[in-house]
Each structure stands twice: as C-alpha cells, then as structure tokens.
Amino acid sequence: MFENLSERLGGVFDRLTKQGALSEDDVKTALREVRVALLEADVSLPVARDFTKAVQKKATGAAVTKSVTPGQQVVKIVHDELVQVLAGDDPNPGALKIDTIPAPILMVGLQGSGKTTTTAKLAKRLTEKNGKRVLMASLDTNRPAAMEQLAILGNQIGVDTLPIVKGESAVQIAKRAKQQATLAGYDVYLLDTAGRLSIDEELMTQVEQVRDVANPRETLLVVDGLTGQDAVHTAENFDQRIGISGVVLTRMDGDGRGGAALSMRAVTGKPIKFVGLGEKVDALEEFHPSRVAGRILGMGDIVSLVEKAQETLEAEQAERMMKRFQKGQFNMNDLKNQLEQMMKMGGMEGVMGMMPGMGKYKKQVDAAGLDDKVLKRQIALIQSMTKKERANPQLLQASRKKRIAAGAGMEVSELNKLLKMHRQMADMMKKMGKMGKKGMLKNLGG
Ligand code: GDP
Fold first, then answer.
1. 3-state helix, strand, coil in the chain (%, to 5)
2. What's the CA-to-centroid distance between 282 and ligand 1, angstroms?
3. What angle (nearest 5°) sits at the alpha carbon of residue 182, between those of residues 181 and 184?
4. Which of 247, 275, 279, 286 has most ligand 1 atoms within 8 Å of CB, for mutation?
5. Which intervals of the chain form a coiled coil (predicted)?
6. Does the predicted TM-score (pTM) go above 0.90?
7. pLDDT digits (tens, 9 = 90+) for 276-313
8. Where do the structural domains in the chain lie, given as residue ranges?
9. Thinking of the domain 103-286, which architecture would CATH place it in?
C-alpha cells in the first residue's frame, strides 16, 4: 500500500547508507528528498515538515554508535519517527475497548467509504479472533438496500443481525439493538449508521442522537484511504461533531499514495485502528505502526542492526559509569547522564525498581522530588554549567551559581537543591561502589 513512497525512500537511503561519512549537508539533502517523497504521497505539508525537522534534530544530536554507518543511523531515526507519527505514544492502537457487556461500537462515515463492509469484517474478526458473541444492526433507514446488504453479509459470516422493522427511525433501531443485545447476552453490538455522500447537518444530527442513545465504547470512523488528505479532513469533521475514538482506513489494498495513513494521527490525534485491504470479509488488518513503518522503509535489517549496536553502546556506557562510581567518582556529567537515563526509564521509580537493595534510599530520592518536569529543569541547570564546573562541582561559589541559575532561567535556590541532591547521590554511589561487583555491576552490566 505504500509502494511508491517506499521506493522513493529506498532510493534516498540506499545512497545515504553507502556513504562512509555524512556531513550535515548530506543529511539535509536527503531529508529534503524525504519531504518531497512524503508530499508526493499526499502527506499533509505540516506533518511532512515536522517529520523532517524532528529527524534532522535527532540526527544532529545522535550519539555515534560503533559498527554502524551514520547513514544506517539516520535510517533508524527515520524509522522511529515514522512509528511515532503513526502511533503517537500508543504502541497498540488497534486494541478495542469492549469491556462492558454488551459493548456498543458505533460505525460512522460517508456513504461508499466501505462502512457496511467494514462493520461485517469487524464483526467476523471479533467473533473468530476474540471469541465474542456479536450482533450487528443497520441504521440506514433511507436505503433499504444497505440494510439488506448487512443482513446478507451477516448470513455469509455467521453473525446475527437485528431483524429489520420497517418504518423505525435510526434512534429507535439503536434502542432496539441495545435491548436485544442486553437481553440475548451479546458481548458486542455494532451499529452501522447511515452514510451520506458528503457531510451534512442532517447526517451529523442523526449520528449524534444515536450516539447519545447507545453511549458507545468505540466510535469508529470508516474512511476511504484512497482519498488522501480528504480522508483526514473527514476525520477532523466527524471528530469535532461526534467525537471518534479511532479510524478504519479502507481500500489500502489499492494504489493510493498512503498519505492519509501518515497524516491521520498527527492531524486528528486519533489512532488508525484497522486498515481494509480488499472487498472480502476477512480483508481487515489490525494497524501495527511499527510493522507499517517497516513496510514503508523496507529496511528492517538496518533498523535491527542499529538497535543492536545501540544496546551494546548503552551496556558499555553503563559499565564505564559503574567503574567510576566504584572509585567514588560522581560529577555533574555523571549526574546529568543519570537524570537523562531516568527520563528514559520512566522516572526514578523505574530505576530504583531495577536495582536490588535500593529500597532504603527511596526516601532520599522522594525528598528530592524527582519527577519528569523536575528532571528536565535539573538537566537544564547542568547544561548551563561550564565543562570545568561539571567536572568539578566544588568550584561553584556564589557568583558562578548566579550565572548558572540565570542561564537556565531559574533561581539559585533551585540550583542549591540540585547541588544538595548531587552530594546525596555521590554519597549513595560511593556506598553502592563498596557493595562492589557482588551486587550492582552484575545487575547493570550483564
Ligand atoms: P458504505 O456505503 O460505506 O457502507 O460502503 P460499502 O461497505 O457498501 O462498500 C462500498 C464498496 O467498497 C463495496 O464494493 C466494497 O466491497 C468496497 N470496499 C470496502 N472496503 C474495501 C477495501 O478495504 N478494499 C477494497 N478494494 N474495496 C473495499
């Protein structure tokens, strides 16, 4: 589904990874090409721009990793950024909230987007993969053919549909579906709402009313992936009016340019949960951002190579640091490393949990108030110190303190707190150093 984009990016990175050394200009040129490729794939301009900016920034600041080329490292950064743009902070966007019994799922979208087909595909999936008892109901009172279509699909996949009662309104059908699902013990019921050719007031009002009756656990917007940025606009509109919990992109089997998939999350903040990959009732796939990123980039080998090299580098760094601690060395650079490490590992608690025998120091750390915001401020303070000061914090007398605090836009009192924490931690590190190879080193370095 991303053939063209994949080919274009492949060309850019093939050239890049073959070069031994990269200048900043090389990276810039490559990223310009990446941006053009994204725009040609119909990714929205702000998303494409933010994307290349983020990559540029990370590529400039990246630690040099042994045994991989800079080009390979850039590929990994692009890969990670693709995952980020596709997934946000949610590694598993395809998971559905179907924790109530029965759990209502509202299917919304424009006519022709593939809504009815997708409703059946999803019902089949929930039945077969999740072992749920599923009921489907069509609310398309304007188009009897659409109701028939859902009934036929239901028959085909062996999923029950709510019997059609002529003359009922969409809200009445929704109420009946809820009642039936509750009484007959269905786990999930899917409401296939009416579509229009374009968004109109009547459609939105009707969907709102149905939403208020059903109180859905998931409201899934079905949009045609071939329509590119229009799909993203449709999602924005539906989200503003109805509030959607996720998106299903259909026709991703076609030769669309894939831009909708890449812009959707960044523009609407809503995850793509599934993609439709054909007309058949099993042509529905859960959306896996990392797999999709892999498919777009087509450079899985390089990505895992860089990952391994990074792991090795981190292990080496940890070992080097432990050696310093054992000698009782713990300066501001060490503290900065530690603080950065903590941010990566989800705060101090995550770190403490990994170290045996650390429980007794927990109070000290809590007293220092180490949450993420504080960590960022502390790092900023250290960054405002000179090299000499970092290596040798004893140098910090009043005038230096003033300069450092001002440089970081903070009060001297905050710097004093940091210095106190540094002393406490240096003390702690010394004690841990005495515990020696028996405890810490094995646990961290191994
Ligand atoms: P609705 O009006 O939104 O309910 O749309 P339908 O479910 O009736 O689908 C419209 C057409 O799109 C039908 O011919 C479907 O078979 C087709 N369709 C739906 N999903 C996909 C998909 O993921 N890929 C392809 N190629 N066709 C699809």
1. 65, 10, 30
2. 13
3. 65
4. 279
5. none
6. no
7. 999 999 999 998 888 888 888 876 667 777 777 777 77
8. 3-90, 103-286, 327-445
9. 3-Layer(aba) Sandwich (3.40)
